[in-house]
Write a structure and sequence with these properties.
The protein is of the alpha/beta class. It has seven helices and twelve strands. Strands 2-1-3-4-12-11-10-7-8 form a nine-stranded mixed beta sheet, sandwiched between helices. A three-stranded mixed beta sheet has the order 5-6-9, with helices on one face.
Length: 252
């Protein structure tokens, strides 16, 4: 019997966060669909350890920014980008992935989010411009199910869904500053999903095995008998990585 996949969930777990509760369930549903076993392990940002991440088959940087250890999250993002380990970032994971690329690929050292450092000259993540109508109470400006998310034809993301327009679940107050969208393309991580007004909603790497970051939260749209296509593809990428790791160990 093969060993279960090890998936690292990087973030500061909160029992009251619906998004955090939903992630292990979304992974479990995807793994069951693929007829494999996967174990999701939470790694708090203040105890990030590269040696522990090396043992995993994939990394998911989860919502919940700012993190208790932002520097550790950026180091993790750089590490997964440079090693090619399958990576998924959602909400805060999307925001930090873009910042990491801007800082370490393009050299924009003060690239930041308005949430953390409004004094920076390069605010590449800024407040959501247009609030969704009829959002609940004090929910974030961009929250709930949002339709008309357009996927870039031919992108990995679009192939996972098998369609070009989808609805997705959001829960955030910050998004990519359109004035810096050029930085995503320049760094090699083009925008592959857009809102109805053209807003950036996901980036991916066309050259990595699996490197996708979404402002939306795919785990929130996962259903018991219908695993989310992005989570399904993420778990499959982890399985492929695990197989390659095993094959490489046999050849050594």
């Amino acid at each position: 019997m093969s060993s279960p996949l090890r998936l690292s969930l990087v973030g500061d777990y909160r029992a009251d966060a619906v998004a955090h509760q939903a992630i292990p369930l979304a992974i479990e549903r995807a793994a069951r669909w693929l007829n494999i076993t996967a174990e999701a392990e939470w790694i708090a940002t203040d105890r990030l350890d590269e040696s522990e991440l090396q043992l995993s088959d994939a990394v998911w940087v989860v919502p919940g920014s700012p993190y208790r250890n932002d520097a550790g999250v950026f180091d993790t993002l750089r590490w997964v980008r440079e090693t090619g380990k399958p990576f998924l970032g959602s909400c805060g994971g999307f925001q930090y992935a873009f910042i990491e690329c801007a800082r370490n690929v393009l050299g924009i050292k003060d690239a930041d989010t308005a949430e953390n450092n409004s004094a920076s000259k390069n605010i590449i993540i800024h407040p959501v411009a247009c609030a969704v109508p009829d959002r609940k109470g004090d929910a974030p400006k961009l929250s709930g199910s949002v339709p008309e998310i357009r996927l870039r034809p031919g992108s990995y993301l679009q192939t996972f869904y098998g369609q070009e327009t989808v609805s997705e679940e959001f829960f955030c107050n910050f998004e990519m500053n359109p004035e810096f969208e050029w930085a995503a393309m320049e760094a090699g991580f083009p925008v592959v999903a857009r809102g109805a007004g053209g807003e950036a909603r996901a980036i991916e790497s066309p050259t990595h095995r699996f490197y996708i970051a979404t402002l939306f939260q795919p785990q929130l749209a996962s259903k018991p008998k219908e695993p989310h296509p992005v989570v399904l593809a993420f778990v499959q990428a982890a399985a492929d990585w695990g197989k390659k790791k095993l094959d490489d160990s046999v050849l050594e």
